Protein backbone atom coordinates (compact mmCIF):
# COMPACT_ATOMS: atom_id res chain seq x y z
CA UNK A 1 0.00 0.00 0.00
CA UNK A 2 0.98 3.63 -0.42
CA UNK A 3 -0.04 5.82 2.54
CA UNK A 4 -2.95 7.29 4.41
CA UNK A 5 -3.06 10.93 3.41
CA UNK A 6 -2.42 13.71 5.90
CA UNK A 7 -5.75 15.02 7.14
CA UNK A 8 -4.08 17.93 8.90
CA UNK A 9 -2.84 19.70 5.76
CA UNK A 10 -5.20 22.07 3.96
CA UNK A 11 -3.92 22.11 0.39
CA UNK A 12 -6.74 19.90 -0.89
CA UNK A 13 -10.37 19.36 0.01
CA UNK A 14 -11.18 16.24 1.98
CA UNK A 15 -14.36 14.19 1.81
CA UNK A 16 -15.92 11.18 3.47
CA UNK A 17 -18.59 8.83 2.15
CA UNK A 18 -19.85 5.24 2.35
CA UNK A 19 -22.03 2.52 0.88
CA UNK A 20 -21.80 3.05 -2.86
CA UNK A 21 -22.85 -0.58 -3.43
CA UNK A 22 -21.82 -0.35 -7.09
CA UNK A 23 -23.62 -2.98 -9.15
CA UNK A 24 -26.33 -3.58 -6.57
CA UNK A 25 -29.64 -4.15 -8.40
CA UNK A 26 -31.84 -3.93 -5.27
CA UNK A 27 -33.10 -0.39 -5.75
CA UNK A 28 -36.29 -0.93 -3.74
CA UNK A 29 -34.49 -2.43 -0.72
CA UNK A 30 -31.89 0.36 -0.76
CA UNK A 31 -34.56 3.02 -1.30
CA UNK A 32 -32.78 4.44 -4.32
CA UNK A 33 -34.72 6.31 -7.04
CA UNK A 34 -32.93 4.72 -9.98
CA UNK A 35 -34.32 2.40 -12.63
CA UNK A 36 -31.43 -0.07 -12.41
CA UNK A 37 -27.86 -0.57 -11.19
CA UNK A 38 -26.33 0.98 -14.30
CA UNK A 39 -28.33 4.19 -13.91
CA UNK A 40 -27.35 4.31 -10.24
CA UNK A 41 -23.64 4.00 -11.04
CA UNK A 42 -23.78 6.73 -13.68
CA UNK A 43 -25.55 9.12 -11.29
CA UNK A 44 -23.19 8.39 -8.40
CA UNK A 45 -20.15 9.10 -10.59
CA UNK A 46 -21.69 12.34 -11.88
CA UNK A 47 -22.66 13.62 -8.42
CA UNK A 48 -19.35 12.61 -6.85
CA UNK A 49 -17.27 14.26 -9.57
CA UNK A 50 -19.36 17.44 -9.43
CA UNK A 51 -17.94 17.97 -5.92
CA UNK A 52 -14.64 16.07 -5.78
CA UNK A 53 -11.66 16.96 -7.99
CA UNK A 54 -8.96 14.46 -9.00
CA UNK A 55 -6.56 16.00 -6.44
CA UNK A 56 -9.00 15.91 -3.52
CA UNK A 57 -8.85 13.21 -0.86
CA UNK A 58 -11.70 10.85 -0.05
CA UNK A 59 -12.26 8.42 2.82
CA UNK A 60 -14.72 5.69 1.80
CA UNK A 61 -16.15 3.88 4.81
CA UNK A 62 -16.92 0.56 3.21
CA UNK A 63 -19.07 -1.24 0.70
CA UNK A 64 -17.81 0.24 -2.55
CA UNK A 65 -19.34 -2.64 -4.54
CA UNK A 66 -22.17 -5.07 -3.99
CA UNK A 67 -20.57 -8.39 -3.01
CA UNK A 68 -22.59 -10.36 -5.58
CA UNK A 69 -21.47 -8.03 -8.41
CA UNK A 70 -17.66 -7.87 -7.92
CA UNK A 71 -17.21 -7.00 -11.59
CA UNK A 72 -18.45 -3.50 -10.70
CA UNK A 73 -15.01 -2.79 -9.25
CA UNK A 74 -14.02 -1.50 -12.70
CA UNK A 75 -16.15 1.63 -12.14
CA UNK A 76 -14.01 2.80 -9.20
CA UNK A 77 -11.54 4.36 -11.64
CA UNK A 78 -14.17 6.88 -12.76
CA UNK A 79 -14.61 8.44 -9.28
CA UNK A 80 -12.41 11.49 -8.72
CA UNK A 81 -10.05 11.81 -5.79
CA UNK A 82 -7.21 10.07 -4.05
CA UNK A 83 -9.02 7.49 -1.98
CA UNK A 84 -8.62 5.51 1.24
CA UNK A 85 -10.92 2.53 1.84
CA UNK A 86 -12.06 1.43 5.28
CA UNK A 87 -13.36 -2.02 4.42
CA UNK A 88 -16.98 -2.99 5.06
CA UNK A 89 -18.73 -6.33 4.89
CA UNK A 90 -19.31 -6.14 1.11
CA UNK A 91 -15.62 -5.46 0.42
CA UNK A 92 -14.46 -8.82 1.73
CA UNK A 93 -14.87 -10.45 -1.69
CA UNK A 94 -11.80 -8.45 -2.79
CA UNK A 95 -8.18 -8.97 -1.87
CA UNK A 96 -5.92 -6.00 -1.22
CA UNK A 97 -4.31 -6.75 -4.58
CA UNK A 98 -7.71 -6.38 -6.27
CA UNK A 99 -8.16 -2.94 -4.70
CA UNK A 100 -4.68 -1.45 -4.60
CA UNK A 101 -4.93 0.25 -8.02
CA UNK A 102 -7.88 2.32 -6.77
CA UNK A 103 -6.85 3.29 -3.21
CA UNK A 104 -4.00 5.03 -1.44
CA UNK A 105 -4.50 2.71 1.53
CA UNK A 106 -6.87 -0.03 2.65
CA UNK A 107 -7.91 -0.43 6.30
CA UNK A 108 -9.09 -3.91 7.37
CA UNK A 109 -12.73 -4.73 8.03
CA UNK A 110 -13.79 -3.80 11.56
CA UNK A 111 -11.01 -1.26 12.02
CA UNK A 112 -11.28 2.52 11.71
CA UNK A 113 -9.41 5.77 11.23
CA UNK A 114 -8.85 8.44 13.91
CA UNK A 115 -8.39 12.13 13.09
CA UNK A 116 -9.42 15.61 14.22
CA UNK A 117 -11.54 18.21 12.43
CA UNK A 118 -11.31 21.64 14.10
CA UNK A 119 -10.25 19.94 17.35
CA UNK A 120 -13.19 17.52 17.18
CA UNK A 121 -11.86 13.97 17.70
CA UNK A 122 -13.44 11.79 15.01
CA UNK A 123 -13.46 8.07 14.35
CA UNK A 124 -14.39 6.77 10.90
CA UNK A 125 -15.56 3.14 10.82
CA UNK A 126 -18.01 1.17 8.71
CA UNK A 127 -20.15 -0.25 11.51
CA UNK A 128 -21.95 2.16 13.88
CA UNK A 129 -21.56 -0.31 16.76
CA UNK A 130 -17.79 0.00 16.39
CA UNK A 131 -17.78 3.72 17.19
CA UNK A 132 -15.89 5.32 20.08
CA UNK A 133 -17.58 6.87 23.15
CA UNK A 134 -14.98 9.63 23.36
CA UNK A 135 -14.91 10.44 19.63
CA UNK A 136 -17.53 11.64 17.12
CA UNK A 137 -18.32 8.54 15.08
CA UNK A 138 -18.55 8.81 11.29
CA UNK A 139 -20.06 5.61 9.98
CA UNK A 140 -21.99 3.88 7.21
CA UNK A 141 -23.49 0.40 6.82
CA UNK A 142 -27.10 1.27 7.67
CA UNK A 143 -27.90 3.14 4.43
CA UNK A 144 -30.95 5.40 4.95
CA UNK A 145 -32.12 3.88 8.27
CA UNK A 146 -30.95 7.04 10.06
CA UNK A 147 -28.63 10.00 9.54
CA UNK A 148 -27.82 11.22 13.06
CA UNK A 149 -27.47 9.73 16.52
CA UNK A 150 -26.33 11.64 19.62
CA UNK A 151 -22.69 10.81 18.91
CA UNK A 152 -22.77 9.50 15.35
CA UNK A 153 -23.18 10.75 11.78
CA UNK A 154 -24.09 8.35 8.98
CA UNK A 155 -22.01 9.67 6.06
CA UNK A 156 -23.34 7.09 3.59
CA UNK A 157 -24.73 8.30 0.29
CA UNK A 158 -28.25 7.05 0.99
CA UNK A 159 -28.57 9.52 3.88
CA UNK A 160 -26.83 12.41 2.10
CA UNK A 161 -28.41 12.96 -1.31
CA UNK A 162 -26.02 10.46 -2.94
CA UNK A 163 -23.06 12.79 -2.42
CA UNK A 164 -19.89 12.71 -0.31
CA UNK A 165 -19.54 14.86 2.79
CA UNK A 166 -16.88 17.58 2.92
CA UNK A 167 -14.94 16.97 6.15
CA UNK A 168 -14.82 20.72 6.74
CA UNK A 169 -18.59 20.60 7.44
CA UNK A 170 -18.32 18.07 10.29
CA UNK A 171 -18.44 20.81 12.98
CA UNK A 172 -21.73 22.03 11.47
CA UNK A 173 -23.26 18.56 11.67
CA UNK A 174 -22.13 18.14 15.28
CA UNK A 175 -23.53 21.58 16.17
CA UNK A 176 -26.89 20.58 14.67
CA UNK A 177 -26.92 17.46 16.84
CA UNK A 178 -25.84 19.36 19.93
CA UNK A 179 -27.79 22.62 19.67
CA UNK A 180 -30.71 22.33 17.25
CA UNK A 181 -32.32 18.90 17.10
CA UNK A 182 -34.90 18.22 19.78
CA UNK A 183 -36.65 15.23 21.35
CA UNK A 184 -38.55 14.50 18.15
CA UNK A 185 -35.23 13.68 16.47
CA UNK A 186 -34.09 11.61 19.45
CA UNK A 187 -37.42 9.80 19.79
CA UNK A 188 -35.60 6.45 19.85
CA UNK A 189 -34.87 7.23 23.50
CA UNK A 190 -38.52 8.04 24.24
CA UNK A 191 -40.55 5.34 25.96
CA UNK A 192 -42.75 4.84 22.89
CA UNK A 193 -39.68 3.30 21.23
CA UNK A 194 -37.31 2.49 24.09
CA UNK A 195 -39.85 0.14 25.66
CA UNK A 196 -39.40 -2.15 22.63
CA UNK A 197 -35.64 -2.55 23.03
CA UNK A 198 -34.93 -6.28 23.03
CA UNK A 199 -38.42 -7.05 21.75
CA UNK A 200 -38.10 -5.87 18.15
CA UNK A 201 -35.17 -5.77 15.78
CA UNK A 202 -32.72 -8.33 14.46
CA UNK A 203 -30.29 -9.72 17.02
CA UNK A 204 -26.55 -9.36 16.63
CA UNK A 205 -24.30 -7.51 14.21
CA UNK A 206 -21.08 -7.95 12.26
CA UNK A 207 -19.13 -6.27 15.04
CA UNK A 208 -20.92 -5.59 18.30
Return the CATH topology.
Purple Acid Phosphatase, chain A, domain 2
User: In what order do the strands lie side by side in the largest sheet?
Assistant: 4-3-2-1-10
How far is it from the N-terminal to the C-terminal residue, by CA?
28 Å
Indicate the low-confidence ranges by residue numbers: none
Order of helices and strands: EHHEEHEEEEEEEHH
Please explain how this structure is put together:
The strands form two sheets. A five-stranded mixed sheet has the order 4-3-2-1-10, with no helix packed on it. It has a five-stranded mixed sheet with strand order 5-6-7-9-8, with helices on one face. It is α/β, with parallel strands linked by helices and 208 residues long. 17% of the residues lie in helices and 18% in strands. It has one domain: 4-Layer Sandwich (Purple Acid Phosphatase, chain A, domain 2).
Secondary-structure map with pairings?
Elements: E1 14-17, H1 27-30, H2 37-49, E2 57-60, E3 82-86, H3 96-99, E4 105-107, E5 113-117, E6 120-124, E7 136-139, E8 148-149, E9 152-154, E10 165-166, H4 170-180, H5 191-194
Parallel strand pairs: 1-2, 2-3, 3-4, 6-7, 7-9
Antiparallel strand pairs: 1-10, 5-6, 8-9
Amino acid sequence: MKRIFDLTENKTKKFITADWHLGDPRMEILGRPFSNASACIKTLIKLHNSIVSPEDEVIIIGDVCYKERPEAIKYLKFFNGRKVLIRGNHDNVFSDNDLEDYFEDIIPDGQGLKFKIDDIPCYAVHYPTQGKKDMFTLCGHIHAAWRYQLNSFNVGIDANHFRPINLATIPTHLKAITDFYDDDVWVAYNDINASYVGKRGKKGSYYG
